[in-house]
Write a structure and sequence with these properties.
There is one protein chain. The protein is mainly alpha-helical. It has three helices and no strands. The chain is rod-shaped.
Length: 111
C-alpha cells in the first residue's frame, strides 16, 4: 500500500474547499462580467438615455399642452364664426329664391 503524507492530504482538502468558497465557474464568470468596465459604461449610457427620454417626454407634453390651448383659444372661435357666416349666407340665398329676386352674387354692380 502506498502511504500518503498527512501534509499533502490536508493541502489537497484545503485547495478543494478554497475552490468551493470561490464558487463554480459560473459564479466567477458572472462576477467578472458584473465588475467589467464595459458593463459599467453600458449602464451609464442606458441611464443617460433614460434621462434624456424622460426630459424629452416632459418637453413634448408641455409643447402639446401649449399647442392645444392655443388652438382652442384662437382657432375654435374663428371656425365657429365662419360656420355662422356660412349659414347666414345660405339663409340669404334661400330667402332670395323664395321671394323671386336673383341672388346677390348674380346682380351686376352699377356702372
Amino acid at each position: 500500500m502506498a502511504s500518503t503524507k498527512p501534509g499533502k492530504r490536508s493541502s489537497l482538502i484545503k485547495s478543494t474547499s478554497r475552490d468551493n468558497n470561490q464558487g463554480g465557474i459560473l459564479t466567477r464568470v458572472s462576477t467578472a462580467v458584473s465588475q467589467s468596465p464595459i458593463l459599467a459604461q453600458t449602464k451609464r449610457a442606458g441611464s443617460d438615455a433614460g434621462y434624456v427620454a424622460n426630459r424629452l417626454l416632459k418637453s413634448t407634453g408641455k409643447a402639446a399642452w401649449i399647442a392645444g390651448t392655443t388652438f382652442l383659444i384662437l382657432f375654435v372661435p374663428l371656425i365657429i364664426e365662419m360656420d355662422r357666416e356660412q349659414q347666414f349666407n345660405e339663409l340669404d340665398l334661400q330667402q332670395a329664391s323664395l321671394l323671386g329676386t336673383p341672388p346677390p352674387s348674380v346682380l351686376a354692380p352699377p356702372k
